[in-house]
Amino acid sequence: MTRYIIIGAGAIGGGLGGRLAQHGHRVVLVARGAHLQALQRGGLRLRSPDQDVRLPVTAVAGPEEIILSDEDVLVLSTKTHQAEAALTQWADVPVISEGRTVGTAGERLPLLTALNGVTSESLALRYFDRVLGVCVWMPAVHLEPGEVIIRGVPRSGMFHLGRYPARSTTDADTELLDKIKIDWDGSEFEVLLPADVMPWKYRKLISNIGNAFQALIGPNGEFGRLVKAASTEARQVLEAAGITVTSDAEEAQTRSDSFTVRPVPGTPEVLGGSTWQSLSRGSGAVETDYLNGEIARIARENGRTAPINARIAALARRAAAAGRRPGDLSADEVARLLGL
């Protein structure tokens, strides 16, 4: 029976792992600090529009606390700026079969990259032979230790999965993807298996362009026009680089067919995305260098510039390092700093 090792049990990893455990699948959540202690002490509290449940889960701090086997599937769901540290931690862990070591995790086990951005897949190939990209659409929030809030109904979220790169797909990959689809579809998610997952991930990247603005400004002014300017710049950069992006119409239709977002009883009225959550928790770092900063990188690599995305990435990076909270800047201040 497949066991899912969720490396990074925050909003996405905790929500995914919690739902899988709730529906009878073998799951190990990898967490740290107060969150790990809460999971080990009282299980995972999973809150959604229709449920408030506490689930017994297996939670560990790292690979030294479990024994890996060929039945394991690793799911990387950290923030992108934390991904390389996690990859190096897990790649060389021995895989045991019938009491003997048969290889390492990097050699033997599939790794799913369930995190934002488009960089983790190529990062993972430095360490893992078999990488499967995951495009995540899941309205989930992790603010308190031991707790994840999921706001999607009737499905908790939607995932596009595929081998990376797509041309590497084997019959074994197809079999594994079909198995994952069965397991995750049956755990209140929807899994789609496109021929190539990366156009979906680039479309999600465009959606994540607004994360930095939401995190920095919060309720402190209307920032829609700023997001539009940054998104337009991002689209121009991707088009100039010849990168294929799933169309807005296809993405919107697919997502609306899967879930809608509803409030969760007893939770704050305002709940933001991943970058907003990082600032709210005072984590000291954010992933926007791999979102807006990714657009800047692609632009520079192709002899162009992306000043709006480069500047907002820098603002978010500095805000996190300084311990600022959502809404510490106004929309007018950010517009001035971006020259808009």
TrEMBL record:
Signal sequence extent: none
Protein name, UniProt field: 2-dehydropantoate 2-reductase
Keyword Oxidoreductase: yes
Domain called Ketopantoate reductase C-terminal: residue spans: 197-318
Molecular function terms from GO: 2-dehydropantoate 2-reductase activity
Family in the record: Belongs to the ketopantoate reductase family.
Record-listed E.C. numbers: 1.1.1.169
Keywords assigned: NADP, Oxidoreductase
Lineage: Bacteria, Bacillati, Actinomycetota, Actinomycetes, Propionibacteriales
Keyword match NADP: yes
Top EC category: oxidoreductase
Record-linked Gene3D superfamilies: N-(1-d-carboxylethyl)-l-norvaline Dehydrogenase, domain 2, NAD(P)-binding Rossmann-like Domain
Ketopantoate reductase N-terminal domain residues: 5-162
